[in-house]
Amino acid sequence: MNHTCQIKLFFKSIFFLFLVVGFTTLATAQILDPVKWSYRSVDLGSNQYELVFTTTIDSSWHLYSQHVPDGGPEATSIFFDNLNGFSFVDPNVSIEEEEGFEPGTTIYRVIFEEPQPIEEYDPNFDMVVKYFADQAVFSKKIQLDSDAPLTITGVYYFMCCDDSKCLPPADFPFSFDFNGGAAPANGGVEPTGQMEEGNMLVDGQIKENSGLWILFIFSFLAGLIAILTPCVFPMIPMTVTFFMHNSDNKAKARFQALAYGFSIIFIYTVLGTLVAITLGANFANWLSTHWIPNVLFFLIFVFFAASFLGMFEITLPSWMINKTDSKADKGGFSGAFFMAFTLVLVSFSCTGPIVGAILVKSAGGAVLEPIVGMFGFSLAFALPFTLFAFFPSWLANLPKSGGWLNSVKVVLGFLELALGLKFLSIADQTYHWGILDREVYLAFWIIIFALMGFYLLGKLKFAHDSDVHYISVPRLMLSIIVFTFVLYMVPGMFGAPLKALSGYMPPQQTHDFDINSIVRDNLKIANFNDNKSAAATDICETPKYAEFLHLPHGLEGYFDYDQALACAKAVNKPLFIDFTGHGCVNCREMEANVWSDPKVLQLLRDEFVIVALYVDDKSRLPESEWITSSHDGKVKKTVGKKFADFQINRFNVNAQPYYVLFDTEGELLVNPRAYDLDVDAFVDFLKRGIAEFKTRSPKPPAFDAAALY
């Protein structure tokens, strides 16, 4: 077989591999199927029948009324192909003639009786609409013209959404067969207009959730890094040589190599699927905020870091490896599979910490994330084995194993140690332990990365390291990058915002020695002494929970909705609600990169009453403030659960950050806004809210701010 045929065979095989694994992965995806519908007829006697369409709607989804405003969602519609052979009992029935779904045809839209709809603001379309939740029944009475057999056909058309995404409109045929006056059989179908979780309808187009792509790329890079560890890299030539030892049948050897690569991907993807099933979205909030999983994840990362730094080896039982290895000698696809399984087990001491990091990163998210993460990791991990098996001549250019492999492992150990601190930080913030404030966290990172830099320069040596007689250029360049990062973090010890790390650092408010805050407080004291009445207009009364909750950038506001709304009424200002959380990375990025902009700060400080509602705070409420949720019927006893329940009940959203603008009556001013680092768009969001508020409150009441103090 010549090289051209080899290349064609390789790329055809890779394409086939992508199709098979991609199909397997997507088959496990969580598919949304929120609407089921059926139809039937009820015999009323005297050739009269009632046509009934019943739609069952999943929780948190809604179906729109037959009457919606222009520019809004698609209305639920029932179309008839023709109106021959029957008439409607209601003489005032509304019938609209429209162009059919097929060119050149005509259909008739008939307005059916419908239940009383809910009329509320819909964030998908930025308007008030009528919709149904749980179930909707549409009915209409007809009179058959004769006892002759009659078939009535048409199309049931609808659109359904939740508060963050919509399914494409779906249309499904119906057919009522009246045979000599006999009632037709019941009918019904389930919609096929499904979509994967994470998509969103924006301006009529379905947008893919970019977070999955970011996770895939991160996991793919992690898989490439895992190849460079001392447990994996030396196995590449050994494995490839095993596949290519049969020179008489190279095609068979390449098939086995492909099966080997596919098996690696399959094994890791199954692992991701198991995590998705056992630790899926239902556990997301508990995993991301409770101290038990976060402290456990921190300890796991420290354990993995100690292993990478050479303190001990993480090994699986030898009987497991030997038993799997013995089955690899069978040959064929099963032999290739058990060889792949042996590789996974043998390399566990190096890949385990990396795989664990990916699973920990994704376990608290949507169901797809662990699957996508493991697929990305295993795809990169399997590529070199498959490539070198197809092109064995490339082995001559492969770098030789040596001490540099252990250096890669040690660098990964430093990274695991640094990243593990994030989990401890989340628990610390959520429960207000005060053991890992911003400057302590920064001090750990500065020391960890400084030690990594010295290690790369050969000034620090571990037990399994080889002697470094000289520094290679790549190692020098990497050490320069590490020390540059260390110097970047040093000003953070004195209060510098470090915007590039805002999502991973504890909030600025936990920093004890913040020069900016000290200067700002001194200026406030000076302004207060110069003009007490002006300084007194910031807030109406001492905010609840202010002893452990704070707003960024010196802003003043509240942490309780009722208290903030009362103040908004008193000063006649719109209410800015920030649904946030201690463990919310995107919240910190918004505060560091958007809220810090002078235009945004000026609007927030001067035009709004601000309230930050922490949905993950574990502080216990006094019993008099406990609430029973109308959403799940449970009693909410902590600050976080109370305001998380408020967000879910009011907006049917459980994601942060989420920004809402209310008037003084607690009514929405404009469409709420989520995570978006576009400063100009956020300024426009605030200004539109202010403009709408002024149209609703043309005459603000007189208010004596000084009387509050």
Describe the structure.
The structure is a single chain. The strands form 7 sheets. Strands 6-11-3-2-15 form a 5-stranded antiparallel β-sheet, with no helix packed on it. A 5-stranded antiparallel β-sheet has the order 7-8-5-12-14, with no helix packed on it. The chain has 3 domains: 3-15 and 209-288 and 314-418, no CATH class; 32-196, Immunoglobulin-like (Sandwich); 532-708, 3-Layer(aba) Sandwich (Glutaredoxin). Helices cover 45% and strands 16% of the residues. The protein is an alpha+beta fold. Strand 2 (35-45) and strand 3 (48-57) form a beta hairpin. The chain has 20 helices and 23 strands. Helix 2 (210-227) crosses helix 10 (368-390).
Estimated structural class? alpha+beta
| Major beta sheet, strand line-up | 6-11-3-2-15
Bin the helical content: 40-55%
What share of the residues does DSSP label as strand, in percent?
Answer: 15-25%
Question: Which helices and strands occur, and which strands form pairs?
Answer:
Blueprint: H1 3-27, E1 31-32, E2 35-45, E3 48-57, E4 62-64, E5 77-80, E6 86-88, E7 95-99, E8 106-110, E9 118-122, E10 127-132, E11 135-144, E12 150-158, E13 160-161, E14 170-178, E15 187-189, E16 195-196, E17 200-202, E18 205-207, H2 210-227, H3 235-243, H4 250-278, H5 284-289, H6 291-308, H7 318-327, H8 332-346, H9 348-363, H10 368-390, H11 403-431, H12 438-456, H13 473-489, H14 515-530, H15 532-535, H16 561-571, E19 575-580, H17 585-595, H18 598-607, E20 609-614, E21 627-628, E22 635-636, H19 639-651, E23 658-662, H20 679-696
Parallel strand pairs: 19-20
Antiparallel strand pairs: 1-16, 2-3, 2-15, 3-11, 4-10, 4-13, 5-8, 5-12, 6-11, 7-8, 9-10, 12-14, 17-18, 19-23, 21-22
